Amino acid sequence: MATDKNKRLDDLVAQSKKYQAEREQTYRERSLKMYPWVCGRCSREFTHTNLQELTVHHRDHNHDNNPNDGSNWELLCIYCHDNEHSRYIEQVRYGSTGSDSAKNTTTHNPFAALSDLLKK
């Protein structure tokens, strides 16, 4: 009985991975044809040699939202993509401000007298 359950679970996982790979191939190939092979955050350029390090980021974080015009896609390197998702997770978990210390406003302006110094 346990082996039947494990086999069904393995089949389900395999089917899910296959579906995800097919879905990614579709929008990835389309986005690589639409956009230049440059990371949208750090501007790193890619060639055929390192193209596997360029990923498609969904701006609304919904991987099923793949409009034909590519308006929900952004090409990001693996590092910037990871950073973007980390920031999104923090925003969901802690809110848009991040922490209480971010609510405090800065009162010191180190450049307050800069215009006077430039006039001299």
Q: How many helix segments? A: 3
Overall geometric form = elongated
Please give the order of strands in the largest beta sheet: 1-2
* Secondary structure: number of strands: 2
Q: How do the SSEs run, as a string of H and E?
A: HEEHH
Residues in helices, as a percent range: 40-55%
Residue windows where pLDDT falls under 50 for at least 5 positions: none
Q: What count of structural domains?
A: 1
Distance between the termini: 87 Å
- Averaging pLDDT over every residue, what do you get? 86
Q: How large is the radius of gyration?
A: 22 Å
Main beta-sheet annotation: 2 strands, antiparallel
Describe the structure in brief:
The chain has about 120 residues and is mostly helical. It has 3 helices and 2 strands.
How are the SSEs placed, and which strands pair?
Blueprint: H1 2-34, E1 54-58, E2 73-77, H2 78-94, H3 114-119
Antiparallel strand pairs: 1-2
Task: Outline the structure in words.
- The protein is mostly helical and 120 residues long.
- The chain has a single domain, classed as His-Me finger endonuclease fold.
- Helices cover 47% and strands 8% of the residues.
- It is built from 3 helices and 2 strands, in the order αββαα.
- The protein has helices spanning 2-34, 78-94, 114-119, and strands at 54-58, 73-77.
- It has a two-stranded antiparallel sheet.
- The longest helix has 33 residues, at 2-34.
- The chain is elongated.
- The chain starts with a helix and ends with a helix.
